[in-house]
Structure prediction request, 648 residues.
Amino acid sequence: MSRRLRRKVVKKGKEKVVLPSYPEIENDDGGLGFENKGFANWTSLPDDTVIQLFSCLNYRDRANLASTCRTWRLLGASPCLWNSLDLRAHRCDSAAAASLASRGMNLQKLRFRGQETADAIIHLQARGLREISGDYCRKINDATLSVIAARHEQLESLQLGPDFCEKITTDAIKAIAVCCPKLNKLRLSGVKDVHGDAIDALAKHCRNLTDLGFMDCLKVEELALGNILSLRFLSVAGTTNLKWGLISHLWGKLPNLTGLDVSRTDITPNAASRLFASSQSLKVLCALNCSALEQDVTFFATYNNNNNINNKGKLLLAQFSDIFKGIASLFADTSKNKRDVFFEWRNGKNKDKNLDMIMNWLEWALSHTLLRIAESNPQGLDTFWLKQGAALLLSLMQSSQEDVQEKAATALATFVVIDDENASIDCGRAEAVMRDGGIRLLLNLARSWREGLQSEAAKAIANLSVNANVAKAVADEGGINILSSLARSMNRSVAEEAAGGLWNLSVGEEHKGAIAEAGGVKSLVDLIFKWSAGGDGVLERAAGALANLAADDKCSMEVALAGGVHALVMLARTASLKECKSSKVAARALANLAAHGDSNSNNAAVGQEAGALEALVLLTKSPHEGVRKRKGVKLIIFQICSFDDHAT
Prediction:
């Protein structure tokens, strides 16, 4: 079979018209193989259609598709497919980055995770990068960040967080200011001390800096922040040791300051009132989880009675206020359902550039703060979460900003959890998510081609499914098929969260058959083989789901047929040596498989599996008490030995 291009010619009157050339596959006998057999010839698709197809795939699937033929390999390298790159799910060292350099010439947006990838960024040779966003940045130091800034002079946006940047100091911020004069957005989390000279450098060199965030910092020089006259949006959420008397005087003079986020700080009612009074430009003050404001009865009553707005028409967003109603007040038409304010704005025809900037910033600020509040889980927030917190997260999950969607999904997965160790969740919060249509929304996100969204959505579904009513809703909405499919992902994080979802769903007897029918058993067994070299989290979840399924007589046969006995024995042997949690779960799964007695042949299958008894005996001698005393281990040894005696 050989490839050739044909010029297609048709007659139009007396003229010959040359149609666009599309590649076709020709057999050695001169015929077109696919078309002669009645199949569609995919190679005849127009280039723009193929590129559109590529754009709907993740990077791994793009690479697989591009490897099918020379034409698609060239189309797969099209610059429009490589203007953004998300490396968070991939191990990217210097060699891997260098291999991508030929495609990085047009790269404008990059997301990465961790120190190793941060060190490798310069090898992408993407000098035209406009946006860089990183997480898991605890080990990133000044040297790495300074080199990144020096190599990317066109940078307009740099975001590191929400985890703390513990090794980044003022020196790196100064380097960013000097090297990236086009910077208009800088957001850093957890920097210990931001000195005035670094902030002054930003004011001097970054004249277009409109969006600045120093979140969860120990100390920020308040006086210097008052010198960045270009600022429109400022966040100091979670930052400590702020001098509010100085702030209310200085920041009120910033001529363009429109949005200020002071959530999770100790701002006083007096400072908030003075900020509103002194600033001519300030429109929105975010002050969620600020105890000093919430405990002041007079301040609370004043803003509640005025629909979150002071006498100068400025908006305060706090836990005691109606946040949806407050945001709706920013729009001229306030007659619509206040809960739909984000949806109406995103789909509105009459766009206002200034209002769009405020709303985009609000989405980010709210998603960041709600995630932080969900992680710390302070007391006394049940009413907030039930009345508006859950609905806010669901609204934010529909944002066009990918990082907002992910933070909202992560917060949703987190705020329902009461006790992580014992898998306890708040049923009221879980059912609030279900009532507001959250299950369908999460399942839609799980179908996304973006693996970051898949992972966070699957995590939320898994946690919510601990509640029996939510689990039923997930099953009814087709969630079992979606999770079974995600469990086959080549992305370990996605597969792990999907396996966790199947684990929680498999607790219900009514869901076990559906998991088997959806191919979930095979997916779970394959996970153990695929990630046997590492990743105890994914192994524990896969074995846990198989243990629950193995308790059902019919499903236990499916587990055995899918190679589950061999997989679980292998896991029990390797994990017991490393004292991993997955060894306990694997032992329980094997015990459940063998517990059916004469009703099926699984007892014999476990006994006949090479190394099974050896692995289980090793578990009884484990130095880890929880593994050694596991009843299921001794039970299965007894069952296997009893079966062998009976057979003899």
The first helix runs from residue 33 to 36. Residues 9 and 15 are 10 Å apart (CA to CA). The two ends are 60 Å apart (CA to CA).
